[in-house]
Amino acid sequence: MGVVLLLYLIIEVVAVWAVASVVGALWTILLLLAGAIVGSWLARREGGKAMRAVMAAAQAGRSGHQEITDGMLVALGGVLIFLPGFVTDVLGLLAMVPPTRTMLRRAWLRRLERAAGSMRHGRRVVVVDGQVVEDSSYGASYDTTRDRRRDDGEDGPPRIIEG
Questions:
Q1: Average pLDDT rounded to a whole number, residues 90-99
Q2: I want to staple 156 with a disulfide (CB 3.0 to 4.6 A). Which of 116, 126, 136, 142 is the partner?
């Protein structure tokens, strides 16, 4: 996590430095403020739309997973907007604008479905070359000191299946 934070700081400093060297320090500060203002307005507008969509889905008696996911992406975009810097402003705007939010939602839900699909009836399954195969190592782990399998329930190193 520390490495991610450090990488974020380096990327943002480089981006702010690059913009400041092109347009000047005053305009850079004004651009950062304008991004925060526009982003907060967009977060409020899109957040309100997402909340109304969740309420409409609930009143219609249907699952509101798409609407809830949209609301979560708008919230994520709002948090990114309020973090200082140009890179997070752009990422936050992409999470809040409906066309890119739809693409992000679809990718996120596909990933969740794959993760949920790997757990069936208490058994872990994996997909190898398009075939669903039960993972025989589920519940077993490895003794790292002797590199042997043991069945005491401790997690061992992850297994990688290439194909």
A1: 90
A2: 142
